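P.,

For your records, the input lines for the assembly:
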Amino acid sequence: MSRSILWRRGDQVLILAAGALTVFGLIMVFSASEVQGWMFYHNSAYFFERQGLWCLLGLGLLWVAARFDYHRLRRIAAPIALLTVLLLVAVLLPHVGLELNGARRWLRLGPLQMQPAELAKMGGLIFMAAWLDRHRLEIRSLEKGVAPFLAMLALLTGLVIVERDLGTTMIVAVILLSQFLVAGGRWHHLLLLLLVVGLAAVVFIQMEPYRLHRIMAFLHPWSDPLYTGFQPIQSLLALGSGGIFGVGLGQSIQKYLWLPFAHTDFIFAIIGEETGLVGTTAVLAGFALFTYRGFRIALKAPDAFGSLCACGITVWISFQALINVAAVTVTLPTTGIPLPFISYGGSSLALSLMAVGILINIASQGQKVGWIRHASIDLGRRYGRTPVPGDRRRAGALAERS
Amino acid sequence: MSRAEGLSPRRRILTLLVLLLCADLVLFSRLVYWQAFRHDDLSRLAASYHDDQLVLPAVRGKIVDRNGDLLVANTPVFSIFASPDQIKPSDRPLEADRLAAVLQLDPGAVLTQRQSSRMFVYLKRRVSSAVASQIDHLQLPGIGKIPETERTYVDGALPGTSLASDLLGFVNADGRGNYGVEGYYDHLLRGQDGFETTVRDLTGRPIVLSDRQRREPVDGATLQLSLDSAIQVIAERALADGVAHFQAESGSILIMEPRTGRIVAWADLPGYDANLYGSTGTALFRDPIVSDLYEPGSVMKVVTLSGALDDHAITPDYRFNETGTAVVGGYAIHNWDHRAHGLVTMTQVLEQSLNVGAIRAEQMEGSTQFFTYLQRFGIGDPTGVDVAGEVSAPLGELSSWKASRLATASFGQGVDVTPIEMLAAVNTIATSGELVQPHVVDQVVDTSGRAHPVSSHVVRRVISPQAAAQMRQMMIGVVEHGSGFAARIDGFRGHIAGKTGTANIPMNGGYGQDPSDVIASFTGFVPAEDPQFTMLVIVRKPKILFEGAYVAAPIWKAVASALITRWNIAP
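Structure tokens returned:
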């Protein structure tokens, strides 16, 4: 009973879009990683098998999240944030954190590794949704709203950036800032925050020579095609070789070690090579659809917390996809972040799927006239917390029954 | 609180949605740009990264003579290459020194090549198998050899030359035929190189499952020439002896079979060694038989009188008073001996090679007819012989010819021909009046062993058999009673038809005063009634005895005698 309600009310289009991207991602991970899998582990399916396991775990998380009343997240928002911060600190400790590709980003969890930075997005957006919901009336004030917001933003992004992960830092910042905007922050405050974040980014880019290299490689890839320009050039060669219809699934040549990170950050280039413009456009359209449906859920959410959560998740997935595709098409410098649902990488896939589960739960409690509309009508109350308490209770009851 | 405080949350969410979707559109346009508009050049560039093409060289066709004896052989040689990516950088300087010593190269240059990032560089092309085995003994990593072939030309009659060098030409370092038969038949001899394309991964290993394109090489066709090596050797030696004896500058001998036009011998002096073409002056590559124009002199009287005979303007016995001087267009033209010969027949005109008599015949025939016969004999046209570099000097329009030029043309001055052109014209008498195209290649044998014969080509009938028979008798008279005395061969008295020629070499609009500035020639065929060969001998600028009668005829006789013996020709 509850399952069918989740399916019917949980935004089928969004579920189908996320599902299609995930399935296509599994196929492409297999294709893009078979060469490396064979070369390093003598198992073409090495990465595929691991990604499959993470996918199952992710589906489990999705299932749990979809049936878990999201209102309860508000109550555990603070512990989640604390756990996130602890993990982010833990990964910095020697013997606990795992170093790979020159960055200490991984935590060992039994046979699997996970990146706490991925968790920072999830934990950060839930906590911020709860905090903003609670402080909606102060958010327009510089001292009571913007200053604490900036402090929390700085703490979270600061912990991520010391892991030398500028890409994830940027995404965390954008998620939190978009929530700030939706929660009613003033435009000039937002501009100020953007300025601060931008300045910080410039400083951090200056601090690390490899970030400057990436920017130089982005601006002038052909000046050093064998070193700094190698990755962007190989990415474009993969895309360009694909043409309109692609060279055929599994037929990529660039994955034969030519394109570094073919199955992770640059899997979109392999998609472009094997399935052509048709495939890349389909993937891009899938994410656009996800964006649209995600914000639709935010609009129909029964309360501000749900709306802010939905916005945070939607911005997370959408923005991360944009940044990834922008790097692959050499529209922006390389930042080293995975393509949601598709790139090889367990924490990213599992947490993305879990986020979808949260969205499904919010959607399942959505109303024809959501919190937003009530807020617009009831200007006197401004952002009334629970305009239709009955609904909330019913949703909660539903979750408890299930 | 009012709306003026800011946008509603709904508007704020919609703003985010629009921003993100706009970014999607930007990225979509980037994808269209890279994948649709840049597809071609990016694919090509990608291929340049991972496609590896190996050329499978075709073996150039052989050239053999009429008996199947090799004129050009393919010798196995080796090209030494390096795979710099397989050599440790620390080993490179030492390796470069050792290689340079064996290959006789500059160690610095070798080292530079070795340090390139490429996977394949040629160190030296076409070294002998001896050098290649020395390289093998060094057992250097990353060094390999590719078997190739090199042209080896048979030795000529003279030291320092290869046989029929001007006729055959040579093949340059790029594998292209230059000059002669190598140049003319390059497209058939060269064959078609094959290739094998493999797709490689970043480390250079071939991708096993990728499409492997392979095209087998098609070896070049073998050419069988009508040339007779033995005769060629005799001709080269006789020419060399004659040129040395008369201290001449150069000479040529050309022999063809009258009916078929098959070339039997094609000798030039000086020749060169085609195996050492790289260190040979390019002036020597030029083949005077097809590429040099000369004024043939009295040999042309055969053409003049044949035309007049065919036109019935004269008969061999036509008698007239020869005064020793003809005044044409304001110029006085004399005989070679500056003497008047009184009452002479046309046969005597040819026998004693009287210029005034030739002018007489030309005038009796009329300029239009004379000019027409020049054209019919092929004067001014290329013969179409299958050798590279043939030239010709077109006669132009009759209207542009002055009377004086028509007069001198009747005895072969003021008209330019190539030796092969002149031989083909005189050969018309040997074929009873048909102009036959000379050719060198008898048959083309393709790689599957199938022979494609080259058929003989009769260009046109020039004069009647009767006129040809009359001229034949007159040419026999030249040898028996006239200037061709030196070509007489015992046992063949009355069976040799010939004509001498001694032409002044035009210089700066006039003719040189130095008596050695002449081209002495003799052309004739044997046996006159059923000719087996027609031969032209040319000697340029002899310093001793200047005339065809004394200089060229004895050489002709020497070669003709040898040919008669070898071919068992009966009178």
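Two observations worth noting. The first strand of chain A starts at residue 97 and ends at 100. The first helix of chain A runs from residue 2 to 9.

Regards
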